[in-house]
Amino acid sequence: MPGPRDASAPLTVAVTGAGGSGAVTAGLILLEAVAAAGLYGLLRRSAGPQIRGGESAALLRFGPEPVHCAGDRCDLLAALDWANHERFADEIPLDAGSLVLADPATGPPPAAVVESDTRLREMGFSSSAAERDGGRANMVAVGAAGALAGLPLAALLDAAGRTLADKGQAVVDAARACIRSGHALAKPEDRLREPVPPPPAVPQRWHINGNEAAGLGALRAGVRFVAAYPITPASEMLEWLAPRLERLGGTLLQAEDELASVNMLIGSAFGGVPALTATSGPGLSLMLEGIGLAVASETPIVVVDVMRGGPSTGIPTKSEQSDLNAALYGLHGDAPHLVLAALGIADCAHTVAWAVQLAWQLQTAAIVLSDQSLGQSRMVGEPAPATVPPVHHAAPGDDGPFRRYSVTEDGVSPMSVPGETGLAYTADGLEHDPAGAPSSRAADHAAQLDKRRHKLLAHDYGPDWAEITGAADAELCLVTVGACRGAVVEAAERLSEAGRAVRTVALRLLAPLKRQALLDAVGGARVLVVEQNHGAQLFHYLLAEQALPEAARALARPGPLPLRPGEIAAAAAALMDPDGGSP
Question: pLDDT, tens digit, for every residue of 567-579?
Fold first, then answer.
């Protein structure tokens, strides 16, 4: 029988049940206990596309070091029931080393669980909860799973109090009683980890998801107007922003649709107020014409796209990086704009703030790519510093008539706001001359096209274009984007521990692409591009930009399953040792 795991290694705990069983609440309490114990954690949630009911799961990975991705396997599964378990069984990899806690009152475990050869332990979650006034089976599961995962009872009880505080003291008391019962049900011989000693002082940690972090980045950068239409999985960003914008003197408006919301952003920015919207794939499709208007009129706006599985309605509650082509190429005509990608939950704050700043510096539209796994996963981790200053724009000069779209050395023209004397101009979607008057002359069209492209290419983006880690003389370079960054870095660390020289490049700025900088970062290494979509969109984009060596290869897999460090490490090893060597 396996003994306690290495205390330095991350542990994965899953709680599953039918929708409404409280699996996600159980996960939130466990994550709060992780924070109280001075550890780091990442909580992902899984649900079906149903409005109510269906399957529900909370998947928590935690340890003494920062956690940025899902693990290769599930160490402990607490099954509140087996309803619809087969719908997300492949998201919870079980093997002979896994421990499964199952309530016998809910029937026998599914065949897939039995066939995985896990250690099964019957545990009466529901019967134990029935002994307590107001008891809930999910709280008994919190106590049992927490005990077996080495979380202190005091941390679990404290976490329940904070998580359930708004439900009243009676609910908190009942939950704590059930947690104590579950903690007592856990057998010491089944422990996966010895109890964590309480820290002398709980260190400062962020307890945040990517949607909230993106909203924080927007506020830090000076965004004071948001117009949006609700859509999964971006709506939480809007819900988080609404009361906070109001406290800062800003406004959030729920528009009648995505077309209206993007055009409202243009109106706000035209008036000098930084503006942003959040959406997902179907909404981005509706906004593309409006984004083109922002490009043509050189009006700074930011669109955060929290990607989900597609096409069409697709898989709205699951993650996929499949909007890249739409973000890069979806605008009609030659419409150069910014495309950025957040590289982690905390990085959502930095990337969104940077996008707002760049949009105003360069007077253009910026699309920021997040995804469901970043937006709706919650982390306990290090805070992201506020490194990006609030926005500013190029002020008009005092000499001569105002030429809003004048061709300048760096391509950035002077910009005014309504009400400034002598600085009125026409801003619309028609091509124009330097003064803004509509023009169909070939010379004006070419000059404005050149200017809109040049200002993006000539700008100095500094080191933030990518996050680069690992050996400078690497034999393999893993290139990735977005939420895949965490699994790629962990895979690279495993390969490095095995004696292989590996480098990672996670792209934060996708358009304009820093082609030469990427080639320099890759050097003479073999390249594997890692992404979560079916068509290897990033790989083909980099090939088209001639930013990869000829022998580069792709590891592209669609959602909803996350890419895991083990499969990335295996693909990398196969590329380095095509004859069957091991890392």
Answer: 999 999 999 987 7
